[in-house]
């Protein structure tokens, strides 16, 4: 058997892995091995216990890693659930391209919920600040209901945010999609309780216990492909709220903001209107691993304007049904 | 060992939980541990420093309220208490840690149970000025029943006792009396000040009479639970699902024919080690067969250990579905329909004898009836006392009848095979954490515990 996991670079990954597997001097599993097996176990549990799971897939590194884990969980079969993307209309074009290529390569089905459609017909109103991240909740919940999805995989990690640090791996949402942080089910051993009633659904977070560095080391080890903007590149940017914003159709600079060309990369990939780039020369995955290992600032702190609104910004959005 | 092994620098994973009574300073200790091990990044520290200043926090820690680092929910910051388990991640050169910061309030004991079930170690905080409290005993009982491999007692606020050796000695002696009573074996007792940082990361010059390791030094060297268990527990793999892709393969077209008849049993190794060529027994049914392959996403392994997620290929075509358990031949228990268990009752609705529930063992969920409540653990005397019902936060002994025979084992023999959830059949709530204390092959053989009112 030599066929690699679907999203990996072919032969070298497997050869390397087999070399390691053949070594006999190790006494235990590495932390990535343990985290990988934990995630695969969670993904298989959800597929076994739920009727219609779906994976939230944005083309961002965390959802790409979850998809890779799903491919490994069901090898040599296909990933047995579709993908769902909430398109804010402000996504980076290269990320959408990557998303579509990935879906086509794996032969999967992609559902897209478009924020723009909701704005066009008046179900949602554009915010004064132009940010569309908070507007994703309604299209997301509608898409979950329309697809009758009873389980929704996400790539959220507990190290991202204080509110996420409190969330269970299997997190029950009521029929309004709301999270009740004060009344969560106890999660015991590795026994996940997926029972729910009609109208409720469960959000499942297989990489809850991974850190940003774990994710990058795993991307390196597995040879996982990512959108190019995760790596250093030249880009026209301007300074706002202490981060570099890309010049684009929905993120134009104000009169007093100077556009400069800089070598940057993205640590997170979200809506163009609120995701910032960081100065970086990290052009390869190895460079990024080194950069993250010595970073003194969190990824959301470095790159997300929407989480700077208040200390409980994420908690408030999650209670309303956000990712 | 033939695991897919990474370069050494990546290190191993160690999970630990905090416990103790409210105001013992758990969140402060966690904040201190993260801060002094350089796990707090600049923007997080900024936010916490700003909030600390806004609230007029003026401690010896340079004006930083470390509890704000982990108390992530709005209500927690408003009330200054920890409501829910917060998971935090940090790494040293030796190891990466997953830390479950658990609440101390009595009404949130269920979250402490949550944190402890996955922990390799529990750090039990005790306020040096208050000594052993009811909640200390309660949490130590939980830790004992859940068989958490390592217990570390952090006697906190030692600075407020002027680093007095005798004061520390008195608390250490009192806690050792409780751990001896509970039969907890060796525990580590460390004098610390979370606020000042004594013996948290660095050994403190303020406690020259203490010659043991700092808390972090200890955590870096304790063996993880799976390493401890691998040598003593037999191989078990609860089957999650059967991988039988037939036409829908993800492999290259030229290889597709090789996988037309592929059939493997996917699951996470719950305990022990399995090797290609091993003879295994499958329950239900009790048929024996041989492991012909261990697949991990295209990599053929010679062996797998807990907690690896793998897929087993077997020599014979057996009727195996989700819920089946594959284990080393000759070690598998007889399936039983009746068992005695300890329950950690976690729901506001009390347990009455005769309650109809669901129980989930491994990958198998079956209907069950709670027979009798044998008794409730009195946490002051640690005796079993008569109880008509189990209320939230009670730890009780019960008998359970299962609708289908399952190959359960005692928790003492195998943590994974002996652990189960009790689930409310209508709304799906998790009512209790259960651990098997005795499995009965013949119903009602244990005197006085098999009856139904």
Automatic annotation (TrEMBL), chain A:
<dbReference type="InterPro" id="IPR050128">
    <property type="entry name" value="Sulfate_adenylyltrnsfr_sub2"/>
</dbReference>
<comment type="similarity">
    <text>Belongs to the PAPS reductase family. CysD subfamily.</text>
</comment>
<dbReference type="GO" id="GO:0004781">
    <property type="term" value="F:sulfate adenylyltransferase (ATP) activity"/>
</dbReference>
<keyword id="KW-0067">ATP-binding</keyword>
<dbReference type="InterPro" id="IPR011784">
    <property type="entry name" value="SO4_adenylTrfase_ssu"/>
</dbReference>
<dbReference type="GO" id="GO:0000103">
    <property type="term" value="P:sulfate assimilation"/>
</dbReference>
<dbReference type="Pfam" id="PF01507">
    <property type="entry name" value="PAPS_reduct"/>
</dbReference>
<feature type="domain" description="Phosphoadenosine phosphosulphate reductase">
    <location>
        <begin position="53"/>
        <end position="276"/>
    </location>
</feature>
<keyword id="KW-0808">Transferase</keyword>
<dbReference type="InterPro" id="IPR014729">
    <property type="entry name" value="Rossmann-like_a/b/a_fold"/>
</dbReference>
<keyword id="KW-0548">Nucleotidyltransferase</keyword>
<protein>
    <recommendedName>
        <fullName>Sulfate adenylyltransferase subunit 2</fullName>
        <ecNumber>2.7.7.4</ecNumber>
    </recommendedName>
</protein>
<dbReference type="GO" id="GO:0005524">
    <property type="term" value="F:ATP binding"/>
</dbReference>
<dbReference type="InterPro" id="IPR002500">
    <property type="entry name" value="PAPS_reduct_dom"/>
</dbReference>
<keyword id="KW-0547">Nucleotide-binding</keyword>
Automatic annotation (TrEMBL), chain B:
<dbReference type="InterPro" id="IPR027417">
    <property type="entry name" value="P-loop_NTPase"/>
</dbReference>
<dbReference type="InterPro" id="IPR031157">
    <property type="entry name" value="G_TR_CS"/>
</dbReference>
<dbReference type="GO" id="GO:0005524">
    <property type="term" value="F:ATP binding"/>
</dbReference>
<dbReference type="GO" id="GO:0005525">
    <property type="term" value="F:GTP binding"/>
</dbReference>
<keyword id="KW-0067">ATP-binding</keyword>
<dbReference type="GO" id="GO:0004781">
    <property type="term" value="F:sulfate adenylyltransferase (ATP) activity"/>
</dbReference>
<dbReference type="Pfam" id="PF00009">
    <property type="entry name" value="GTP_EFTU"/>
</dbReference>
<dbReference type="InterPro" id="IPR009000">
    <property type="entry name" value="Transl_B-barrel_sf"/>
</dbReference>
<feature type="domain" description="Tr-type G">
    <location>
        <begin position="11"/>
        <end position="228"/>
    </location>
</feature>
<dbReference type="Pfam" id="PF22594">
    <property type="entry name" value="GTP-eEF1A_C"/>
</dbReference>
<keyword id="KW-0548">Nucleotidyltransferase</keyword>
<dbReference type="InterPro" id="IPR000795">
    <property type="entry name" value="T_Tr_GTP-bd_dom"/>
</dbReference>
<dbReference type="InterPro" id="IPR050100">
    <property type="entry name" value="TRAFAC_GTPase_members"/>
</dbReference>
<dbReference type="InterPro" id="IPR054696">
    <property type="entry name" value="GTP-eEF1A_C"/>
</dbReference>
<dbReference type="InterPro" id="IPR041757">
    <property type="entry name" value="CysN_GTP-bd"/>
</dbReference>
<dbReference type="GO" id="GO:0006790">
    <property type="term" value="P:sulfur compound metabolic process"/>
</dbReference>
<dbReference type="InterPro" id="IPR044139">
    <property type="entry name" value="CysN_NoDQ_III"/>
</dbReference>
<keyword id="KW-0808">Transferase</keyword>
<keyword id="KW-0342">GTP-binding</keyword>
<protein>
    <recommendedName>
        <fullName>sulfate adenylyltransferase</fullName>
        <ecNumber>2.7.7.4</ecNumber>
    </recommendedName>
</protein>
<dbReference type="GO" id="GO:0003924">
    <property type="term" value="F:GTPase activity"/>
</dbReference>
<dbReference type="InterPro" id="IPR009001">
    <property type="entry name" value="Transl_elong_EF1A/Init_IF2_C"/>
</dbReference>
């Amino acid at each position: 058997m030599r066929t690699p996991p679907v999203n990996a670079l072919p032969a070298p990954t497997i050869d390397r892995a087999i070399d390691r597997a053949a070594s006999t001097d190790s006494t235990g599993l590495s932390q990535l091995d343990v985290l990988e097996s934990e995630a695969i176990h969670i993904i298989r549990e959800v597929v076994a216990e739920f009727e219609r799971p779906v994976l939230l897939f944005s083309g961002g590194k965390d959802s790409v890693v979850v998809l890779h884990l799903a491919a490994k969980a069901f090898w040599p079969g296909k990933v047995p659930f579709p993908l769902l993307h909430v398109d804010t209309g402000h996504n980076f074009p290269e990320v959408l391209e990557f998303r579509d290529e990935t879906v086509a390569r794996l032969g999967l089905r992609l559902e897209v919920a478009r924020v723009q459609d909701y704005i066009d017909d008046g179900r949602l109103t554009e915010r004064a600040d132009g940010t569309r991240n908070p507007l994703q909740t309604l299209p997301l919940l509608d898409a979950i209901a329309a697809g009758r999805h009873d389980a929704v995989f996400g790539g959220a990690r507990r190290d991202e945010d204080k509110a996420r640090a409190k969330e269970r791996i299997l997190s029950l949402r009521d029929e309004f999609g709301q999270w009740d942080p004060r009344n969560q089910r106890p999660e015991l051993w590795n026994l996940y309780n997926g029972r729910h009633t009609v109208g409720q659904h469960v959000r499942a977070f297989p990489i809850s216990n991974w850190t940003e560095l774990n994710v990058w080391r795993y991307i390196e080890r597995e040879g996982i492909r990512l959108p190019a903007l995760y790596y250093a590149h030249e880009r026209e940017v301007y300074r706002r709220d202490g981060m570099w914003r890309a010049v684009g159709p929905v993120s134009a600079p104000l009169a007093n903001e100077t556009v400069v060309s800089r070598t940057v990369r993205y640590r997170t990939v979200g809506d163009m209107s609120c995701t910032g780039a960081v100065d970086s020369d990290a052009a390869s995955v190895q460079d990024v691993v080194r950069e993250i290992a010595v970073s003194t600032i969190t990824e959301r702190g470095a790159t997300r304007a929407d989480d700077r609104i208040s200390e409980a910004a994420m908690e408030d959005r999650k209670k309303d049904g956000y990712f | 060992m033939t695991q897919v092994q990474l370069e050494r620098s990546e290190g191993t994973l160690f999970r630990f939980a905090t416990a103790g009574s409210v105001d013992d300073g758990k969140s402060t200790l966690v904040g201190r541990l993260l801060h002094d091990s350089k796990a707090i990044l600049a923007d997080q520290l900024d936010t916490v420093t700003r909030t600390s200043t806004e609230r007029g926090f003026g401690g010896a820690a340079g004006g930083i309220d470390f509890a704000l680092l982990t108390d992530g929910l709005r209500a927690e910051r408003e009330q200054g208490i920890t409501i829910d388990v917060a998971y935090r991640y940090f790494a040293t050169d030796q190891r990466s840690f997953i830390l479950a910061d658990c609440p101390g309030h009595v009404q949130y004991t269920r979250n402490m149970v949550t944190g402890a079930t996955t922990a390799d170690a529990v750090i039990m905080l005790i306020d040096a000025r208050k000594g052993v409290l009811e909640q200390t005993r309660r949490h130590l009982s939980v830790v004992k029943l859940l068989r958490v491999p390592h217990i570390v007692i952090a006697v906190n606020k030692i600075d407020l006792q002027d680093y007095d050796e005798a004061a520390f000695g008195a608390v250490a002696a009192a806690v050792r009396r409780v751990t001896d009573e509970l039969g907890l074996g060796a525990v580590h007792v460390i004098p610390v000040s979370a606020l000042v940082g004594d013996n948290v990361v660095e050994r403190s010059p303020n406690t020259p009479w203490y010659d043991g390791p700092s808390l972090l030094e200890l955590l870096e060297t304790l063996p993880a639970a799976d390493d401890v268990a691998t040598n003593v527990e037999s191989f078990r793999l609860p089957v999650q699902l059967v991988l039988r892709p037939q036409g829908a393969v993800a492999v290259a077209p030229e290889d597709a024919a090789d996988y037309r008849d592929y059939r493997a049993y996917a699951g996470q190794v719950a305990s022990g080690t399995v090797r290609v060529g091993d003879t295994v027994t499958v329950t239900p049914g009790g048929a024996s067969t041989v492991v012909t392959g261990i697949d991990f996403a295209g990599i053929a392994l010679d062996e797998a250990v807990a907690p690896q997620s793998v897929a087993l290929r077997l020599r014979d075509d057996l009727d195996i579905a989700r819920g089946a358990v594959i284990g080393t031949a000759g070690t598998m228990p007889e399936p039983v329909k009746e068992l005695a268990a300890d329950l950690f009752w976690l729901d506001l609705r009390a347990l009455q004898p005769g309650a109809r529930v669901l129980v989930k063992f491994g990958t198998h969920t079956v209907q069950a009836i709670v027979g009798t409540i044998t008794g409730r653990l009195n946490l002051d005397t640690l005796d079993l006392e008569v109880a008509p019902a189990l209320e939230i936060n009670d730890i009780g002994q019960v008998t359970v009848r299962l609708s289908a025979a399952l190959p359960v084992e005692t928790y003492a023999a195998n943590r994974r095979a002996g652990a189960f959830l009790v689930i409310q059949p209508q709304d799906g709530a998790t009512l209790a954490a259960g651990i098997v204390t005795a499995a009965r092959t013949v119903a009602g053989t244990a005197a006085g515990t098999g009856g139904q009112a």
